[in-house]
Design brief:
This is Photolyase/cryptochrome alpha/beta domain-containing protein. The chain has three domains: about 130 residues, HUPs (Rossmann fold), CATH 3.40.50.620; about 90 residues, Serine Threonine Protein Phosphatase 5, Tetratricopeptide repeat, CATH 1.25.40; about 180 residues, DNA Cyclobutane Dipyrimidine Photolyase, subunit A, domain 3 (Orthogonal Bundle), CATH 1.10.579.10. It is about 45% helix and about 5% strand. The chain is globular and about 80 Å long. A hairpin with a 3-residue loop joins strand 6 and strand 7. The C terminus is likely disordered. The strands form two sheets. The chain has a five-stranded parallel sheet with strand order 3-2-1-4-5, sandwiched between helices. Strands 7-6-8 form a three-stranded antiparallel sheet. By secondary structure, it is an alpha/beta fold. It binds a DNA duplex through helix 6, helix 16, helix 19 and helix 22.
Length: about 575
Amino acid sequence: MAAKRTILWFRKGLRVHDNPALVKACEGASAVQPVFVLDPWFIKPERVGANRLRFLLESLTDLDASLRARGSSLLVLHGDPARVIPAALEAWRCDRLCYEFDTEPYAQKRDASVNEAARALGVEVHAPVSHTLWDLDRLLAKCPRGEPPTAYASFLKIAHGVGPVPPVAPDVPSITPLSDGDALSDGKDLVDALRDVVTGSGIPSLERLGYEPIKAGEGFPARGGETEGLARLRKMLARTTYIAEFKKPQTNPTELWTPVLGKEGKVKGAPPANPFEAAKKSSKEPKSTQLAEAFMAPATTALSPYLKFGCVSPRTFWHELRAVLDVELGGKHSKPPESLEGQLLWREFYYLAGYGTPNYDRMAGNRICRQIPWTWDEERLAAWEESRTGFPWIDACMMQLKQEGWMHHLARHAVACFLTRGDLFVHWEAGAAVFDRELVDADWALNNGNWMWLSCSCFFYQYFRVYGPVSFGKKYDKEGAYIRKYLPQLKDMPAKYIYEPWTAPIEVQRKAGCVVGVDYPAPIVDHAVASKECIEKIAAAYNAHKNGTAGSIVAAGKKRKAGDGV
DNA sequence: GCATAGTTGAGAAA
DNA sequence: TTTCTCAACTATGC
């Protein structure tokens, strides 16, 4: 076999461990050039928030360092990948292109276009699967009629039916660069399409990309990248009690990022005012070996952004987790769907649903999505998005999203329910778009799937189970520490009123320095009234669905209980 | 055709 | 603290 000149195209999968595309790229290669293309379609503040972009840039910096340690480096290009990649293949006279397979519609379209151009150039393309536990085409082939299940238990059967999770790819100790006089490091010999290659360090800053810098004390409280992601994974895996008992629905959405120890669980004492600074300090000045192992974490693992960008391989996560569950815990631990492995399987569940469902990210033309007459009320949507619904629990969650690009899973439930079926009856697509922009871990399949879940459009249908915008947060955090952190205007409100400041006597509001209607908005809806109206509207939509699909009107009528009206 | 398990809520009643 | 109800649906097994 002739030696191959190869472009290794990074998109997700920003790692050197368990990277089958990297392994393939180095197989019989005379030279390999790793590239990442900053796609201007994505890189703008209205589409990708500063927190996620910063996480991406940190991940690229870390990847570049890992590649340099292997004799190579990452070249960051700007432009539409459908033009940039074929141009680079041609300019560098490459005959092989390797990248990680991507199941999202945007990526599928982009990759089809690149593949076609590559074929025309006589370039062979390899796109191995490593972003999901299994090859989704194999899972899809096991689905009845090729339609992914909308119930978790059914998914588990299909997943187990395709066999064990494939092993991780071997490590690649060295990568041969394109060093034969091509001078690629600054991209100076590239064709016109590549003229705006970023020079210097190669990886631009947020500001260079037209973003405002993230304020001190704000931002996602952990660094992006494979090195940090694997370190956090392994520190989490050392917490065997935490892993054994992990039940996602029972974790606390109001828990702030606090120092965590490898074996011991939470560090004693009050949480620091600024977790990010505290973490840096504690790693610089270890008071003991135990403290040196401490890392900042909320109630859940916060590994989601590392999985989203592929800084951490889901298969590495899976196999290392299984080793702890089977060997150290001897099988005595929580089980899916609530357990940690259950969380990886939820991810796979949504990825499969997204891969096998046309128009998955919208209501119209979406086979699995209930058709519900949501509104696009811009005032309500803006109030929700800008933390001025007048419900401190909801507004604090949305402020954490804005500042850090992250909030706990159940906080996402609370605000998504509030926007859609619980109170405001605004379209889930509008909420999904906000999450897609702001979340550091925004993941197309998971985000749209969860919005369908929370809006009772698919996967979950008990629309009368509504999260209370007052009761839900209060259940976890009676004193309202979470609200006080993210809504400082309420920091002196007595605990008795902090979830419902409009019920506080005016003298209490004045004393707290927060008068409702002046310093903090009055609630935009009466929850009791709004939720009742929402439930009625969804019931009507469900009835219309029943009467309009499978079986017949007669069959649907037979199921109706007395007193259903009509 | 029917029963059943599963499925990440709140609040009253026991 | 546990149980029940409130306006539901999917998938499976018999």
